[in-house]
């Protein structure tokens, strides 16, 4: 054992989030010291790295995982906790590259990704407040028309979970707000406590023989037939390397770093609400998300707090006061919360790709280096899918899914590291202005 478990304890190194305050276990792993030998070295202790490690260990591979800070420190432990079907946005755009069958396969993998999470939680008995039920919220009639098309497509794909289209007069059965003109209920999606899921998966990986090291930031990578991954106090020698850092890749690999844009997303959590008020806000305890460019997403926690998130920022600068920034957005939806206290406020970076499809593949000039990143808001499920596909490819199994993802090209954002965020921020401002005009 290279970890010790204490429950519960304050997770001081994580963001000051509701999740950190309510983590149901604390697993501490030592920093890497000295040399480790492995079949596969994984960089990144979020969902991508943890699930790749689990899948590889099951296949008999010796795995070492390095995390720069703590397990689940990045988006995996800070996100809105929404587990929603699908990978990518508008996957039909890739038909010229992967064909109609490839597009259909992407859609089916977007459904399978949620099932991977379901199975992971069940197999390892991970206590992460997994709750089923989700609703897409329509901001305008055109959104509702799109939902009807989505529902028919899902039925055509053989989706086995309940779907129901909601008309305007039915919306109060799902959300206590007059802001929406319809919705699409999906009982095959839902919500969970993401940090507790990550911690549970770390324990699962360790039980399978994976060696995990925290506070082990990678300082240098020597590429070659044998990869050498250096930290401040040690190194890992491995035949294969997996980079699963997503928005926190920084300058570790400039080729991959240029293809993913870190974008800020923010969440506030209210004080625990009286049960009657909580059920007024979300009568069926569903996770919900609207359709705007600067989307709102929200849900109830297990102790009846409203967790309200959104406001995707491409500027690279966080709001000085996240609570003051997010609370007015919450009150536009739920003015009845004007006197409710905000107990937690936090933010973090998600990884955005130019075409909004997760980037899963291997470096063309380094065939023993694999990567997964740029989940563009679908990270809870897509990371779990990525772990399975990466393990299949690394172990030489036939992996149609990996091949499909690897075929899709991904452009490098213009402007370099310092200019690409401001340039995209200007572009997103244009989209928001266009959206505002279209809503009139």
TrEMBL record:
Keywords: Oxidoreductase
Name this polypeptide is given: Gamma-glutamyl-putrescine oxidase
Pfam families for the chain: DAO
Residue span(s) of domain FAD dependent oxidoreductase: 39-392
MF-aspect GO terms: oxidoreductase activity
Coiled-coil blocks: none
Top class in the EC scheme: oxidoreductase
InterPro entries, alphabetized: FAD-dep_OxRdtase (IPR006076), FAD/NAD-bd_sf (IPR036188)
Organism annotation: Metapseudomonas furukawaii (Pseudomonas furukawaii)
SUPFAM superfamilies: FAD/NAD(P)-binding domain (SSF51905)
E.C. designation(s): 1.4.3.-
This protein's GO CC annotations: cytoplasm
